[in-house]
Amino acid sequence: MRRQARLDGNHSAIVRALREAGCSVQSLATIGNGCPDILIARNGRMWLAEIKDGSKPPSQRKLTLDEQVWKLRWNAPVHVVESVEQALRMISL
User: Fold this and answer.
1) Measuring CA to CA, how many Å separate 16 from each of 5, 61, 71?
2) Is 51 strand, coil or helix?
3) Domain harbouring 15, CATH code
4) Within a domain: residue 52?
5) I want to staple 11 with a disulfide (CB 3.0 to 4.6 A). Which of 7, 32, 61, 64 is the partner?
6) Do the domain assignments include residue 78?
7) What is the CA radius of gyration of the chain?
8) Number of H helices, E strands in the chain
9) Strands 45-51 vs 38-42: parallel, antiparallel or unpaired
10) Which pLDDT band holds residue 1 (cuts at 50, 70, 90)?
11) Mind listing the pLDDT tens digit for each residue in 57-79?
12) Is the pLDDT confidence value at 10 over 80?
């Protein structure tokens, strides 16, 4: 039985900011197995993002082994965002 997914402290703020910027956001955090935390869509484009809490020490912001493997095997970019500002920059590319 899989344990409850833990959300980073900034998860809700990032999702809220992306939605306020006109994005559709689907949380994938409960999937586990290294799958990124959120799927974002805006103006016909999509992004996958792993959320890390930028207020934590760098050692606690590293991707887990499952996250690293998932990211390497995926055939599209997986972004790592640590703040609302980074998330908003990501969608403006």
Assistant:
1) 19, 21, 24
2) strand
3) 3.40.1350.10
4) yes
5) 7
6) yes
7) 13
8) 3, 4
9) antiparallel
10) very low
11) 999 999 999 999 999 999 999 99
12) yes
Q: Would residue 6 count as lying in a domain? A: no
* pTM exceeding the 0.85 threshold for the entire prediction: yes
Provide the domain count of the chain.
1
d(CA 77, CA 48): 7
Q: How far apart are CA 75 and CA 70, in angstroms?
A: 10
Do residues 28 and 36 lie in contact, with contact meaning Cβ atoms separated by under 8 Å? yes
Residues 70, 13, 24, CA angle at the centre, nearest 5°?
Answer: 65
Q: Answer for the pair 67, 54: CB distance below 8 angstroms, yes or no.
A: no
Range of the domain at 63: 11-91
Q: What is the DSSP letter of 62?
A: S
pLDDT tens digits for range 33-46: 999 999 999 999 99
User: Distance of CA 51 to CAs 1, 2, 29, Å?
Assistant: 24, 20, 10
For residues 60 and 76, give the distance between their C-alpha atoms in angstroms, rounded to a whole number.
25
